[in-house]
UniProtKB/TrEMBL annotation:
InterPro entries: Phytase-like_dom (IPR027372). Pfam families: Phytase-like (PF13449). It comes from the Bacteria. It comes from Metapseudomonas resinovorans (Pseudomonas resinovorans). Residues 1-18 form the signal peptide. Keywords: Signal. This is Esterase-like activity of phytase family protein.
């Protein structure tokens, strides 16, 4: 009897999506990206009619991606960010970021982009744990985020390690709620709310924090345990979507708590023989979700995949059966 009760408890404590293999997303199209000379595509957003991208190696440009003859041609939009605000990150993390910036030749390390319905763009700087707004009218400006945001995140075990800091940003259409993702060791989610010209935490800043490791999907052929991660965020139809690079999946989560509701895998498509990069982790870094499907961008770091392609890649997946709100 006791064994039966334990079995029932385990069954009902496991999300339904985890009880069986996650539904596989299907690839509708694949586009190499031309015109990003430094590569390292790190964020995607659909703003109005434009598909936009950022690179973590370029501090003063974002890119409009135009489909031309089977590729996406990147057209640069230049902007000039003011000096970032003082960072709340510890000295050791900031020092390592400074050293890397000297080697790379850029300082801000933009890892994600989002936009609201008005067309304002939001870029998250990993190196500074800050968010730059590119407004429709006016000059770029750094958001006045709460002073205790980074402190609460670090108290929850996040943002402790160099190069494992803020990796994703998502904003709601009204531009009143903004979510941030901590990448790994621990991964997590934070939310702030706009109040007039400043942003505040309503309750706590941190809504989700998770440690743990897992192996990559079986087709990679490695049993090495690696930290669970978030590599980008998207907000669609009052749900938060996380791009999970190691697991090769997109998950729908509650925006108030980060609780996972359902996940969809793209491992079958990403790990097809011709598309593999020969690394024990994923390279999916950028996410945008809409009614018809998802845009996923790859930061291959200049590495060639099995078919020899070295350019950044953008995948277009069709929406799952029943749409993104399916149970």
């Amino acid at each position: 009897m006791r064994g039966a009760l334990i079995l029932l408890a385990l069954l009902f404590s496991t999300p339904l999506w985890a009880a069986a293999d996650a539904e596989q997303l299907r690839l509708a199209s694949e586009y190499p990206v031309d015109g990003m000379p430094h590569g390292n595509l790190s964020g995607l957003a659909r703003c109005g009619g434009d598909l936009l991208a950022v690179s973590d190696r370029v501090d003063n440009q974002l890119y409009r991606l135009k489909p031309i003859g089977g590729v996406l041609q990147a057209e640069a939009e230049v902007f000039h960010a003011p000096p970032p605000p003082p960072s709340s990150l510890p000295w050791g993390v900031r020092a390592r970021s400074w050293v890397i910036s000297m080697l790379r030749g850029n300082e801000l390390d933009f890892e994600s982009i989002s936009c609201d319905a008005a067309g304002n763009r939001y870029l998250v700087s990993e190196a500074n744990a800050a968010v730059l707004q590119l407004p429709v009218a006016g000059d770029p400006n750094w958001l006045l985020l709460p002073d205790n945001l980074i402190r609460q995140a670090r108290a929850s075990g996040m943002l402790l390690h160099f190069n494992a800091l803020l990796e994703g940003v998502a904003v709601d259409p009204k531009g009143e709620r903004l979510w941030l993702a901590a990448e790994r060791e621990r991964r997590g989610l934070m939310v702030v709310h706009k109040q007039q010209a400043t942003w505040r935490c309503t309750g706590g800043c941190v809504i989700f924090s998770e440690a743990g490791t897992e192996p990559p999907p079986a087709p990679i052929g490695s049993e090495q345990q690696m930290p669970r991660d978030f590599s980008d965020l998207a907000f669609f139809e009052e749900k938060l979507f996380t791009l999970e690079r190691l697991a090769h999946q997109i998950c729908r989560r509650k925006p108030s708590s980060g609780e996972v509701e359902r996940c969809w895998s793209f491992a079958e498509e990403a790990l097809a023989d011709t598309r593999r990069y020969g690394v024990p982790f994923g390279v999916a870094e950028a996410l945008w979700v809409d009614a018809e499907g998802a845009w996923v961008g790859l930061d291959n770091g200049g590495k060639a995949r099995a078919d020899g392609e070295r350019r950044p890649i953008v995948w277009r997946f069709t929406a799952p059966k029943g749409g993104w709100s399916a149970k």
